[in-house]
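Running this now, will post back.
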Amino acid sequence: MNIRFLETFLWVARLRSFSAAAERLHTTQAAISSRIATLERDLGARLFDRDPRSVRLSPEGEKLLARAETIVRMTHELREQIGDGHGLRGTITIGTIDTVVYTWLPHLLERLKARYPAVSLDLAVDTSLAVARQLQERHLDLALIVGPVLGPELINVEIMRLDYGWFAAPRLEMPDRPCELTDVLAYPLIGYSKGSQPYHATMRMLTHAGIDLDSVRIFNTNSLATIISLAVSGAGIAMVPKAVVHQQVARRELVEVSVRINVGPMPIHAIYAERPDNPLPAAVAAMAAEIAREQGLATQLWSAL
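Update: finished.
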């Protein structure tokens, strides 16, 4: 029996769509249909009930589901144990945010390539909320975002907390002494897009401090590169993770502004759906945590929700 056909069966069962499974497996709908037809012929049973709007497991398909997951999982484990990861093939789809891209993601991808050289990667970069939605819809295998994300079968591992700071171009000549919020807000605030976790945290901080939000000039963008560029140009003051601007600070393009009030550390989580047939998301989440420990970014608390 072809393991790839069993994997195809599992994806059609999860996504309830031949076209969605084809997109996920980077092939055509005709290829998916052919694999399922071959599997049904080999087993002598109809695995799916189809109608123009949906695909659902037949009673025979329900019986196969758990067994197929076990067979595929054991196959992956065997490849891991015998081949040390080099024989494992397939694609892992990871969703993440700009902050991770600008800090430790390159180290993770380098380690992923060394450990699983035959595994391909699909990378999506968006806001934490958008990535969480894609994960919940099972379009992603793993999310590296500000979490947690609660949902059936979702595993959340808090791997690090990123400290935020206020940063300005030297030309703004901010004082060396600790500043009040009013000193900072004399300039436009450059921040993340509305709806993002850092944006909401910033708004809560300002509200708690008694600041009238209507009086605050804010430049919002979903691009971290744009935030940094605007801050370097002197267009305003940015609140960003300290780790993402260390190069600009080292080059004296930005200086950290001491402010009495700040946003607390943001937790970064590795989040994936628990699936016994696919060990890769959990393995890559463990890699991310390992890198965080090596770089001194790891949180002291790990949690599985």
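The first helix runs from residue 3 to 15. More later if anyone needs it.
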